[in-house]
Design brief:
The chain is mostly helical. It is built from 7 helices and no strands. Helix content is 71%, strand content 0%. α5 runs antiparallel to α6 (125-152). The relative contact order is 0.12.
């Protein structure tokens, strides 16, 4: 129980540190003045975190490494595999499934890690350990899926324009708000 409390305090301190290091908010304009746009350097840490995917990803993995301090090698292997997959996908021609994985790696995984870690302070020690193990297991599945996808990718067989058009059409068909049925 004490270990989980220390982990929770560590995660909270890291979040507070990031918010203190982050930019300052802009002053509220008076009633007669138009609102002033914040300069990029004056935006809060959350806005910068959202705007820069590399920072978001690094922050999420750093928080996970702190929380899963009992499994540093496991976290490092998963992160290295996901980072390698991201770099390979970015360098290859358009392929819909790989691009979907890139979105998962750059957006969904950091969001999910953050959401999972926010729940840790509310859990008992045994439940928190199981929660972290479940997080790591799903991240291992994502990593393995990326490796399988990249292993079967045929870089020279895709016509980028045609593949992109098919992907866009498929995504439009999946839109639940679409009126074209």
């Amino acid at each position: 129980m004490a270990i989980m409390a220390l982990i929770a305090v560590g995660v909270l301190l890291l979040v507070v540190l990031l918010s203190v290091i982050g930019g300052r908010s802009t002053p509220v304009p008076s009633a007669g003045q138009p609102p002033r746009q914040a300069a990029p350097s004056q935006k809060g840490w959350f806005a910068r975190w959202r705007a820069n995917p590399e920072t978001r990803i690094a922050d999420a993995w750093a928080l996970l490494a702190v929380a899963a301090h009992e499994s540093p090698n496991r976290v490092a292997v998963i992160r290295r595999s996901c980072d390698k997959a991201r770099e390979q996908i970015k360098s290859m021609p358009f392929e819909p499934e790989s691009q979907d994985l890139l979105v998962i790696l750059e957006r969904r995984v950091p969001d999910w890690i953050e959401a999972r870690l926010k729940r840790l302070p509310d859990l008992a020690e045994r439940d928190a350990h199981a929660h972290l193990q479940g997080t790591l297991e799903l991240l291992e599945e994502v990593s393995a899926r990326c490796e399988r996808n990249l292993a079967k990718a045929h870089f020279d067989t895709f016509d980028d324009d045609a593949a992109l058009a098919r992907h866009i059409k498929r995504q439009l068909k999946l839109d639940p708000l679409s009126i074209d049925d």
